[in-house]
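Our consortium's second objective concerns turning raw sequence data into structural hypotheses that experimental partners can test. To show how far this objective has progressed, the report includes one record in full. It was chosen at random from the queue rather than selected for favorable results. The single chain below, 317 residues long, was entered without modification.
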Amino acid sequence: MRLRNINSGHSVTGVILSAGRVAMNKSQILGLLVIAPLFPYPCFGQGMGEYGGAQAGVAGLGAGLAASLNHGKMVRHSYQAVINAQQVLVMQTKAIEQYMKVGCEQETKKKWAAAEESFRYVLTVIARRDGPGSSKGLPALEHLVSVAKAQDKIEDAISYQKTVIAFEKSAPSQNVSAIVKAQNNLSNLFVTRGDYASAEPFLRDSVAICNTHRSSLSSSQRHNTVISYSKVLRKLKKNAEAETLEAEDKKLEDQDNKILAEDMKFEDPEDKTLAETKKNAPITDLGGAAKTEQSVPTGKAEQSVPSVTITPKADQH
């Protein structure tokens, strides 16, 4: 009986140990099941990598396509902007030409206010097209000077004329004749309002330009400039300076006349002689007879009648 009990006890102990192992295996299995998601299998990791790479590739392709699309839109927008700018430029140029024409027509008709408005608009459009201070507005400015002066707006005319001088002096290739003309016109505007002191420096500079660039200016332009300056000097009670200036101008004028006389003296006389020969040569008709012109007196006036010289034939016996 004891052996059986022992055996039976041993059997019970074995059963208990076996149950414990089974219970421990279950707990381990449960633990592994809980921990397993935290440690993915290699194949699962590879799959995730490949999936991520594919997604990244698709994303990169999409970004590239989007960038290309945006670049295309930018190019199209830039091209359209250029076209629009060119169209605006053409419209502005046509507007300038049209309003210059209208302004000149109104100025010819002495409709000063309408002409002034047209020329002002021309300056506005030129400033928008070429930027402020563009020398392309010089013709419109010169017309505005005349229109303002015709309306007795001397101050406005002086302001416009000063801008004309600034444009002429800032030109890449200066035209000394145009500069002298512009400064003389400004001095005349000052003289119109009796401001001789303001006119003097511009005329003084014009005379200096005439003396420095004698070969580039006509003698008449230099002489007229000197005369205007001399009158202003006398108005300012500078008679001695005016007399000196006039004497120097007379000396230069005599030199110019002497040079002109020498040039005429040494002209080739051949052309003159040939012209006189042709003028006095007899005219030959189709039959070979020479014709000359004779003045035949009449009752009222002399008439030029051609005389034909006929050679008589020999008498036949």
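The partners drew two points from this record. Residues 42-108 form the longest helix (67 residues). Confidence is low (pLDDT under 50) at residues 1-10, 283-317. Both points have been shared with the crystallography group to help prioritize constructs.
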